[in-house]
Amino acid sequence: MRRSVVIRAHLTPLKIYGIIYTYNHRPIMKVSEHPLYQTWNGMVRRCRDPKNNNYKWYGALGIDVYQPWSIKGEWGTTETPQGFIDWLLYVEENLGDRPEGHSLDRIDSSGDYEPGNIRWSNITTQNLNRNSKRGRLRCIRQTPSGGWKVEINKNSKKIYLGTYQTIEEAIKVREEAT
Question: What is the CATH number assigned to the segment(s) 137-178?
Fold first, then answer.
């Protein structure tokens, strides 16, 4: 039997709840089925769980989650994680509903997931917002002949911008195009 955490009736003032179930004449909701639960859980896990596949790009680099948002519940309890409730209230008040095709993004990509530094954005915006060693060379690949090929993605389409002799030329062309 699958155990899951539930949101109890006393939390119903949150208007963005997803699926509501009735249990003993009290409305409840499985937290794991809330439309934003996986977004929150993924955010916390990639910053706090060294076993997470993406931890190396977040937690290991010092990216963290605002402490009140990171409080997870006990496994198997019926209590909703307080961190999820706090994060959900912030999102509803400050970001609104998630637009289609958007996901959670940090405005300052070297900063933490914290109030004032998160937004909903599409994949193009997120790719342009990278701040890492690979971010400097994003969209640039070295060819077997030693040149530097530049391709960018716009509106889900790959656009070839050319191959250049030096990495500096390639970066300049990429930055002008984006």
Answer: 3.30.730.10
